[in-house]
Structure formats: C-alpha cells, structure tokens
Amino acid sequence: MRKKRVLLLSEGFGSGHTQAAYALASGLRELSPAIKTRVIELGKFLNPVVGPWITSAYRKTVSKQPKLVGMMYRTQYNKSLNRFTQLALHRIFYTQTSQVISQLKPDLIVCTHPLPNAVVSRLKRLGLDVPLYTLITDYDAHGTWTSPEVNKYLVSTALVKKKLMSHGVPNSRIEVTGIPVHPNFWTTYDKTELQSQFELSPLPTVLIMGGGWGLLSRNSLFEYMTRWRDSIQMIFCVGTNVKARESMLSNEKFCHPNIKVLGFTKEISKLMDVSDLLITKPGGMTCTEGMSKGIPMLFYEPIPGQEDENCEYFIQNGFGEMFQKDTVEHWFSLLQEPYAAGQTRRDLLTKRNQYYDPMQCPRAVLEMMP
C-alpha cells in the first residue's frame, strides 16, 4: 500500500519557518512511520542563486532598518498579498512548483511561510486538487497568510484564531494546534552529562541566542552581563555569523573560561537543558522551543510587528520578561540561589503543561489527513 506523502514548503526568512516545517515532518514520522515527508525552502530550491540573495537582503533590512519593517508590517496588516506580488510569484515559481508537485505527488501540502502559501493557492485556483494547510509560525496573524484556497489553518493560540477570523477566515477552517517543535525538545537530557559534553562547569548557566543576525554586538547589556562571569556561565550562539563571533572573541570582556561563543549548532535542545536562563530574540519558533523546555526567557530587540506580538504573548502568560538592566540583575541574582532557580523552572514546566502540548500539531494533522 502506498505511503501517505506530505510536502512542506517554507522560506528562509529567518530560520523559524523552516524549523517549524522540519519539526512537523519529524513529529508526523514519529507518530506514524507510514508517512513520507519532504521539506523544501521554495525560493532557495528553485532559484539557488537569487533565493539566498533575497533572504540576505531581508536580514540586512531587519538588522539596519527595523522601524521600516515594522511600518510595512502594520500598514499591510489587514491585506493579503497584492495582485502584483501574486503575479510576480506566479511568473517566477508557477511552472517549477507545479513540476515539483507533479513529481512528488503529495497527498497534502503544508506551507509555513506566506510566499509558498500564495504560490500553491494560485495553483489550486488553476486546478490543483491537493489539500493545502497553512501553519502560522508566530503568535499573530498577518493578512498575507490568508487565502481562500487554504483548506485549514494551523495556529498557535485561540487569540491567533480570533485574529484570523477578523480577516474573514471561517471558524471551521482554523485549528488551534500550537507551533510544533522538533521531537528533540520533547525529552529532557541529563544536565551533568551535558556539562561534560559541552565542557561546562557546574555553574548557573545563561544561553544567549540570536547572534546570527549580528545584533548581539550592538547591545551594551551583553557586555554589562560579563561582570558576573566569575559566578555565572554564559553561552553565546551566533549561528553562521563568523564576523560576530570574531568580534566577540576579540573583546577581552568575552575572553573568560566561563564564557563560550559558539557558531552554528544543531544542539539547541541540549543547550536549553543545560542552561538556567534563555536570552533571545522573540521569534515564534525559538520562544515555543523555550516554552517546551520550561526555561525562563528574556527578550531583546523584537522586530516591530510579529516579534512584538510574540513578546506580548509570552510575557502576559508568565514565560518571560524584557531584557533590561533590572531584569538581568534580578535573574542573575536568582540563578545563584539553586533552590529558587530550580523551583522557577518546575513552575514553568507546570505552566507549560497547561498551555502547550508539543504533540498536538502533528497529531491534529494526522487526524485531518485526507
């Protein structure tokens, strides 16, 4: 009997969209080995030269002109992709995307970014007969996600469902599933073993993420944190940003046995388990991963728009605070009280169980499979 096939389409505008696609794919296979999945970043896959260039230009704009990004997000909030953009996407991607779908013959297509969502929606208007699910990877619902051709929206919270309905999406086409995280985040690793693996001391540990966008070096609070380096261990993750890593390593304040500056790593799940506090950009995926681990979070420099909404959700529900001088002092003092820090994490895990089930999204997709 032929295995069911799920095609997951994403884009590389920040890693969260594609991580959500891989997380859902892994969750589906974990729950049902009879399912075959394929994840594709559409622009990079179909245009290996132009795709990465567009992604790079977007990241530079976000880093250097965040207010402009926020203004565009707000002014277009209630609008779907305009006809010109849809036509451009159609001309660039139509033939190749159609060929990919014909070759892979999926039983279901899941899009985790608005651009492939628009491309597949147009294909459906032209006769494609494959169910389209749209997984929204933030705690907000921008109008660009919406299309009449989407059969089902998978959203993080009831509030996002309400926002989608305000865009005219019927209640029956929206399922609150939470944002999926990779199965690596479903389990807890032994902290002592992790300290040995990462060559860490048995000290309170802070994990700092988001350096791939070149933002860590701009914020003076990160240098301020180093005054605790004799009593608190810090792990900076700068991703593929080689310049940021070199810049930090050349700064004497970060040159200390209790400070590690890491490049790209696939061990974020383990690093969250070995750490006691997460300082991060409030991307929807990273925040959901942090919530799944029950690690307290501090959020810095949210991109105006969706990251503001992510921040608001996690702060209002008690999973994090803004990254400020007073919150740094509070948390760095708390981490040096082992019982208090441990109790805080236990409380967050209890709260997580009330708000989030990491298996809910893949389970929901399985139940809705055609």
UniProtKB/TrEMBL annotation:
One of its GO terms (cellular component) is membrane. Residues 17-181 form the Diacylglycerol glucosyltransferase N-terminal domain. It comes from the Bacteria. GO terms for molecular function: hexosyltransferase activity. Belongs to the glycosyltransferase 28 family. InterPro entries: Diacylglyc_glucosyltr_N, Glyco_trans_28_C, Glycosyltransf_28_UgtP. Its main location: membrane. One of its GO terms (biological process) is glycolipid biosynthetic process. Residues 205-328 form the Glycosyl transferase family 28 C-terminal domain. Gene3D superfamilies: Glycogen Phosphorylase B. It comes from Paenibacillus roseus. This is UDP-N-acetylglucosamine--LPS N-acetylglucosamine transferase. Keywords: Glycosyltransferase, Transferase. It is found in: Membrane. The keyword Nuclease does not apply.
